[in-house]
Amino acid sequence: MIDTVGVSLGARSYAVRVGAGLLARAGAEIAPLLRRPRVAIVTDEAVARLHLGTLTAALDAAGIAHCALALPAGEATKGWPNLARATEWLLEARVERRDVVVALGGGVIGDLVGFSAAILRRGVRFVQVPTTLLAQVDSSVGGKTGINTPQGKNLVGAFHQPSLVLADIDVLGTLPARDFLSGYGEVVKYGLLGDAEFFDWLEVNGPALAAGDAALRHHAVRRSVEMKAGIVARDETEEGERALLNLGHTFCHALESATGYSDRLLHGEGVAIGCALAFEASQRLGLCSQEAPSRVRAHLRAMGMKVDIADIPGDLPDADGLMALMAQDKKVVDGRLRFILAHGIGQAFVAEDVPAPLVTEVLAQALRGR
Ligand code: GLY
């Protein structure tokens, strides 16, 4: 079964297709977008080994010519040198204004290729074929594209919506367990930010979903994409509601920075820890009951995920050091830290004036647990 979730953005509306076997039928899915039967694919070397052959066979079957560039795998790829390399390769491949570029990979490839498509000939269309859980439920949907610079992550980029997203549930079967669970951090985030029933469902079904149940994976990806599509349609450029998608992210960015964006802490792991901290801060502010942070932590623990700062291996800065890293977060407005807090599970909101000493104390206590 394949589901279609629409992202309603007027003339820039598009479909997110969710289901098993989508990669193998990608030619038929992409063909209606094409003005001539030809695409350029950008992927990474690890994904190319696993999935490029399935994609190119599907394009061949639909009579679509293709060429492909495989960049090195890993976060370090998402910078100026590979942006230049991919963009110049697309020019060499004679991609024209009305052509379509295909991004096959996880968040790094989707963000970088989307940005390249945004600036190539002042904007060409692109298709996202996300191959990680994190990319399927978050980064491939919503049009945020960009690269990292020495000054920070995602500080250079553009809003450029894809023309189609193909989220093939089957490809999740090739993910290492740790990467899958990292992506699951973003899935949990959707329940926590706006859908308590979905969180209830995850509490019941999360372990079987992680163990490989395809129907449960399908449901979790579809529900996550539905939530993201709704939020993006209402607030494409993050003037308000879209900021809720950053639940857990202010803490996460500080922890990622403190761990050097290394595999000591994967992004979704940081999001999960950040969500637990955001609920802890909410409880201390009297915004929600003690039950809420306890449930968040219990579920992450039941999934075998990192829950606390104490679960991050190696040394970390003290609470003041982490606060300083948070102050560099790009979402700082007029020097004030902005947090996504919650009145309960599924009830997140944007809090502009969270007292800094309270956040420092939440961090200090979490660090003391080490
Ligand atoms: N990943 C957050 C957003 O797309 O807004």
Explain what you see.
It is a single chain. The protein has 2 domains: 2-174, Rossmann fold; 177-368, Dehydroquinate synthase-like, alpha domain. The longest helix is centred in the middle third of the chain and has 21 residues, at 214-234. The protein has a 7-stranded mixed beta sheet. It has a two-stranded antiparallel ribbon with strand order 7-8. A two-stranded antiparallel ribbon has the order 10-11. The protein has helices at residues 26-30, 45-61, 80-92, 107-119, 133-139, 177-194, 196-211, 214-234, 249-258, 267-284, 291-302, 319-327, 356-368, and strands at 2-7, 14-19, 38-44, 65-71, 100-105, 125-130, 144-149, 152-159, 164-168, 339-342, 348-351. The protein is an alpha/beta fold and 370 residues long. The chain is built from 13 helices and 11 strands. The site of glycine (GLY) has 5 residues, from loops.
Sequence of secondary-structure elements: EEHEHEHEHEHEEEHHHHHHHEEH
CATH class of the largest domain: Mainly Alpha
Low-confidence stretches: none
| Bound ions, cofactors and other small molecules, one mention each | glycine
**What does the overall shape look like?**
globular
Share of residues in strands = 15-25%
